[in-house]
Amino acid sequence: MSKITKFLAAATLAITPAAFGGAAQADSINWDMANEYNDTSIHAEGDKVFSETLSKLTDGGITITHHFGGSIGFKSKDQLDAVGDGALPIADTYVGPLGGIDPMFLLPSLPFLAKTPADARKLFNAARDEYDAIFAANNQKLLWASPWPPSGIWANKPVDSLDALAGLKIRTYDANGTITLQEAGGAPIQLSWADVVPQLSTGGIEAVLTSAEGGTNAKFWEQLSHFTEVNYAMPLNMVHINLDVWNDLSDDQKAAVTEAAKAAEDYVWAAVEKRVSENYATMTENGLTVVTGVDSGYLDALNEAGAKARAEWLEKTGAKGQAILDAYMK
Q1: Residues 65 and 184 in one domain
Q2: What are phi and psi of 219, to 5 degrees?
């Protein structure tokens, strides 16, 4: 029995379709749900918990067709517009590339701000009202957020010093990483997830800033030999639904979606706690070298390099951003 199946079996003991209006609606609903990341990712697991719980709660009245790995044709940077316009009813989106739409989406990936799951969740909760407002302004409703494990550096060598980073063509996932690694002497290139493996294959990049989770799902050990743990940030995916789709639901259906979203959120935040050790074990089994315990001076230098990204974010968000950071730091 898989971890997801065990989780759902336990959850089913506590919730029944009767709690949400009994029998399924006469007209069944099916939503296409986009996710740029692999079907084995922690976010995909959360999506599956959501869809399976929702189907149970509605007696099959609401079902979801998953499109993992960007298979429906949208990258994360496209998904906010796609859901707002109704091209997609629902999506699971890495929000960093949306920083150009609203800088609040860059908050979770501010360098060396949130380095543990508890930190990441506290930071999200401090900004939750702002995210709700941003999605509402884009004709959407935020359902839940899920974290990535801490980001490190995948390469064909240990990247455990500024000398090792110097001139390295490294993929970053948003503007924060690009600014930070450029300040630290690297040669960063911001890429969507779907473009990473092709660029590795052609030599367009030599290294990747992402979590052990991301690289494990993509089997980076087929092209790279080392992962250096730097705990750069714990960025977030967010699951959002078109507001017209949401408003068309009955009260019972809305309650079911809300309960299923909570089940998915609880699953993912609990799973991330042990995900790193599981990833490291898989990476080692596949011959990859995990570099831990890097020099504190190197980490201090990366943190200092990230000061520009943090300052630029505060300049763009002003008093609103400072209030969120103040609430987080309490």
Answers
A1: no
A2: 55, 50
CB within 8 A of 202, min separation 6: which ones?
none
Task: Establish how many alpha carbons lie within 13 A of residue 109's alpha carbon, considering only the half-sphere containing its beta carbon.
Answer: 27
CATH number of the domain residue 266 falls in: 3.40.190.170
Structure tokens at 33: 């749900």
Q: In the chain, how many domains are there?
A: 2
The DSSP symbol for 231 reads: -
- Bridge partners (DSSP) listed for residue 33: 66, 90
Mean pLDDT of the chain: 93
Q: Are residues 68 and 7 in the same domain?
A: yes
Task: Quick: pLDDT tens for 294-329.
Answer: 999 999 999 999 999 999 999 999 999 999 999 999
Check the CA dihedral 86-145-42-199 and report its sign: positive
DSSP state of 108: G
* Contact predicate 53/144, CB 8 Å: no
- 82 and 162: one domain? no
Phi, psi for residue 191 in degrees, rounded to 5:
-135, 145
Indicate if 74 and 211 belong to the same structural domain.
no
- Give yes or no: residues 89 and 173 share one domain: no
Q: What is the pTM of this model?
A: 0.89
Residues forming a β-bridge with 190: 172
Q: Which residue has the tokens 């935040």?
A: 269
Q: Which residues of the chain have pLDDT under 70?
A: 1-26
249 and 131 in one domain?
A: yes
Cβ(65)–Cβ(33) below 8 Å: yes
State which residues form the domain around 199. 151-233+278-329
Are both 8 and 67 inside the same structural domain? yes
Edge-to-edge strand list for the sheet holding 90-94? 62-67, 29-35, 90-94, 236-242, 140-147
